[in-house]
Recover the amino acids of this structure.
């Protein structure tokens, strides 16, 4: 059913079309805050269609509204429903540029991936991006959560991809360290200090550092590392990359 | 009555020993319990009397404590010995020995392993004979008197393990001789220690380090203690818990037994279990043939090492059992097939020997649940020890699982009514020469090079590839590999990897055109990765045009696009040109063989890798139809 016509946005499905395939979640969630937020983002002047900032802007609302357990969020069907039936326009708005009728896979996964793949499905990735990066507020209330790291990460596509597409993302201390140490603000700050002549671009730093981190994790078990150790490791790798002294660059 | 220690003196200008050289040669590689058990059993197995009785070996583990330990050490004249040992503490090994003495004193506890064999020759030979069991085992270093062509050992190195596994570097012998000695009555008792060279307290005498326990007999100054015989020996043996039955053979006592590389001292029970299993693992052929019996005694309880208790070796013995009912195709589990593999033994340098020999390969299709040692080939010759388990797991991707035994030399006709032929003896001698000091593979050795003429290398190196080829014929589904895809198209593929420390040798099932093996491991000494491999086309009509080796950095979940530069690559295949071009800015190794080359082997190393993260090798091979030359 999810064919090129659908992926191109020429065809839509209603809940009735998919009725035979739907299963109830067991509780109802009012999605209107998400609708409203999407409206606002689309109406605003400062964010263009297809910009990764859309993810950053939508994340807090989506995550607060869809107050799912991780177990529920791991169910791919939920995300298929949300993308295909409930928010297809949003998926198109955010991802139309990846659609290629010759190889529709890239677009298809924005609608249909999910489950253990935090990287692909358009809404799943935003929800997990938030889930892995937010800070609980003092009260513990949903309203009191701090999503500033989430915005840093999801607003920087390279960083979001490099975190969400890899296994280490499942371990919160690593995700947080990467988010804190590799976001634009921090990288720009280091560059302004002028410690390194001619450092690589922020995207390069992120992609190189996370690659080195993944390599490092072939010999170290991240769950066995103290948080300080994780922070230090990421910091060291990042500084190596900025010095271009990784040894084989 | 007890014996006493005497140490050989030497002149100040003589060579000094920090430790025993042979110990180091022996400890290279794997000085775990395996080396010990293999060497000890091999020594007894080789000394078996030429009758229908098996050689019987009993390992007795004892921990002596308190008063018992003190009595024992007194009988051992430990005071004299300690004085010398304490003078040698300025060397590494001297220090360790001093620590061991201290530990024994503190704990008033000492572990002693006695290996008692029966129906073996015993320590035959004069005290000063040029060549005898006695001199070989007790006196000489790196001499072997084993001249029999079926003997397991041929270096005289194996006995060094005895001292290596003694924390005090001290070993006692008590032997009942198989042939009467003209002068003296069995048993014969003597001890031997190998300490580092040391000076007397006042520095006026230099002791070479070698010491003997026995009776001081000679009148000459500096003569060494000699064996104690007869009743006197029996009485000392009693005090040393070293008495033996009245049957020919030798009891060897390793004082303060320990596994040099073990992380912690294991308890006796644990060690006993390991010894039993290793005896079966490496000597099931000799045990199965009734040539060898092994038992382990701990706290007065004796346990016979029996193949029945280790069913994982039964698939191998079944190969011999069912050899007479062998089939041509392995249709059903437990079917056994046999094939001959030819081995052309070249003439010896003196013109003798040389023969068109044959090894017999028995292959048994595995049953479900028989997963241990699965897809391994046990290499065995007449000595009855498994030289090597050759892992051919990757030969069977998608094929039938199996267990196999390769019988060579005097072992070739085992399981049939035949007896070994002259040609089998020639092969036996050749295979013996092809074993390195550890006796754990058949490879090119110095002994081979010194005693055989040209062709020995092809012969010995061809064994494994012939085995692989033969196995493939027996366990692979019957498909015509020549018909896949246009032959003129070069074909790229990846072949397997060995990850660090692991044994995950595997072959990509898509590698239809080429076969081979690769290996990569991290070298802690030079902080680089070293790798080697061998590739050849599956189809005889093809040849290899080029081989490219690159080293890939692995990440948590999959390979990255990072490469580690290849520093160096070499090949012993004739006519190969070698280059180190860059691919995506990183140096890779490339081999271009001469036209007509099918098999290419190579080895090399990476640049220094200070990050030491998981790295694998990727081998791309261009194969093309053989050119008409």
């Amino acid at each position: 059913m999810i064919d090129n016509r659908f992926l191109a946005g020429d065809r839509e499905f209603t809940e009735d079309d998919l009725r035979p395939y739907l299963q109830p979640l067991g509780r109802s969630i009012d999605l209107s805050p998400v609708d409203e937020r999407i409206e606002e983002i689309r109406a605003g002047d400062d964010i263009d269609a297809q910009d990764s900032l859309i993810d950053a802007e939508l994340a807090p609302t989506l995550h607060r509204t869809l107050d799912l357990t991780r177990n529920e969020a791991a169910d791919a069907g939920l995300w298929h429903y949300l993308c295909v039936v409930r928010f297809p326009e949003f998926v198109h708005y955010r991802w139309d540029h990846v659609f290629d009728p010759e190889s529709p896979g890239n677009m298809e996964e924005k609608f249909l991936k999910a489950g253990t793949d935090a990287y692909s499905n358009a809404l799943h990735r935003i929800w997990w991006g938030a889930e892995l990066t937010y800070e609980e507020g003092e009260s513990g209330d949903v309203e009191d959560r701090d999503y500033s790291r989430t915005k840093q990460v999801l607003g920087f596509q390279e960083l979001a991809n490099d975190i969400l597409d890899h296994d280490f993302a499942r371990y919160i201390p690593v995700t947080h360290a990467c988010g804190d140490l590799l976001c634009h603000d921090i990288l720009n700050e280091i560059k302004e200090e002028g410690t390194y002549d001619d450092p690589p671009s922020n995207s390069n730093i992120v992609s190189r550092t996370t690659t080195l981190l993944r390599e490092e994790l072939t010999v170290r078990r991240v769950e066995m590392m103290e948080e300080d150790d994780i922070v230090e490791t990421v910091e060291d790798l990042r500084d190596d990359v900025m010095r271009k002294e990784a040894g084989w660059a | 009555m007890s014996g006493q220690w005497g140490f050989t003196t030497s002149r100040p200008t003589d060579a000094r020993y920090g430790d025993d050289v042979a110990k180091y040669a022996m400890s290279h590689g794997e000085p775990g319990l395996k080396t010990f058990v293999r060497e000890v059993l091999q020594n007894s197995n080789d000394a078996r009397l030429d009758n229908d009785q098996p050689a019987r070996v009993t390992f007795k583990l004892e921990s002596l404590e308190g008063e018992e330990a003190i009595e024992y050490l007194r009988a051992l004249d430990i005071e004299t010995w300690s004085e010398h040992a304490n003078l040698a503490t300025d060397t590494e090994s001297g220090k360790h020995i001093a620590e061991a003495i201290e530990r024994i004193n503190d704990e008033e506890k000492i572990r002693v392993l006695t290996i008692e064999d029966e129906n073996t020759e015993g320590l035959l030979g004069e005290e000063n004979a040029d060549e005898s069991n006695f001199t070989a085992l007790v006196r000489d270093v790196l001499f072997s008197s084993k001249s029999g062509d079926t003997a397991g050992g041929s270096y005289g190195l194996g006995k060094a393990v005895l001292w290596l596994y003694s924390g005090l570097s001290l070993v006692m012998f008590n032997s009942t001789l198989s042939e009467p000695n003209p002068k003296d009555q069995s048993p014969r008792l003597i001890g031997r220690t190998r300490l580092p060279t040391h000076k007397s307290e006042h520095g006026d005498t230099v002791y070479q380090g070698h010491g003997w326990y026995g009776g001081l007999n000679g009148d000459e100054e500096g003569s060494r203690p000699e064996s104690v015989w007869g009743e006197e020996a029996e009485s000392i043996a009693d005090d040393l818990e070293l008495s033996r039955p009245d049957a020919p053979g030798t009891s060897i006592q390793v004082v303060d037994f320990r596994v040099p590389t073990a992380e912690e001292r294991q308890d006796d029970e644990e060690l006993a279990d390991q010894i039993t299993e290793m005896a079966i693992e490496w000597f099931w052929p000799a045990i199965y043939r009734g040539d060898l019996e092994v038992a382990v005694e701990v706290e007065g309880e004796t346990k016979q090492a029996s193949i029945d208790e280790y069913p994982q070796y039964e698939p191998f013995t079944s190969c011999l059992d069912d050899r007479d009912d062998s089939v041509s195709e392995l249709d059903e589990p437990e079917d056994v097939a046999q094939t001959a593999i030819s081995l052309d033994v070249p003439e010896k340098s003196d013109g003798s020997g040389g023969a068109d020999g044959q090894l017999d390969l028995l292959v048994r299709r595995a049953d479900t649940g028989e997963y241990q040692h699965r897809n391994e080939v046990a290499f065995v010759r007449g000595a009855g020890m498994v030289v090597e388990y050759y892992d051919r797991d990757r030969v069977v991707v998608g094929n039938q699982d199996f267990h196999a035994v390769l019988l060579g030399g005097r072992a070739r006709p085992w399981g049939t009514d035949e007896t070994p032929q002259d040609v089998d003896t020639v092969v036996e001698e050749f295979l013996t020469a092809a074993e390195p000091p550890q006796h754990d593979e058949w490879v090119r050795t110095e002994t081979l090079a010194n005693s055989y003429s040209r062709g020995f290398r092809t012969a010995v190196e061809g064994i494994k590839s012939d085995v692989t080829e033969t196995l493939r014929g027996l366990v692979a589904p019957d498909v015509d590999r020549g018909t896949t895809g246009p032959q003129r198209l070069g074909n790229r593929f990846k072949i397997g990897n060995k990850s660090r420390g692991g044994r995950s040798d595997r072959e990509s099932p898509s590698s239809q055109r080429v076969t081979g093996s690769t290996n990569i491991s991290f070298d802690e000494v030079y902080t680089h990765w070293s790798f080697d491999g061998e590739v050849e086309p599956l189809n005889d009509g093809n040849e290899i045009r080029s081989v490219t080796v690159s080293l890939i950095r692995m990440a948590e979940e999959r390979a990255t696009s990072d490469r580690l530069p290849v520093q160096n690559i070499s090949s012993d295949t004739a006519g190969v040109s070698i280059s180190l071009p860059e691919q995506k800015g990183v140096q890779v190794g490339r081999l271009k063989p001469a036209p007509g080359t099918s098999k290419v082997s190579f080895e090399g190393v990476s640049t220094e890798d200070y990050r030491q993260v998981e790295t694998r090798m990727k081998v791309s091979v261009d194969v093309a139809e053989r050119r008409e030359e």
Notes: Chain A is about 55% helix and 0% strand.
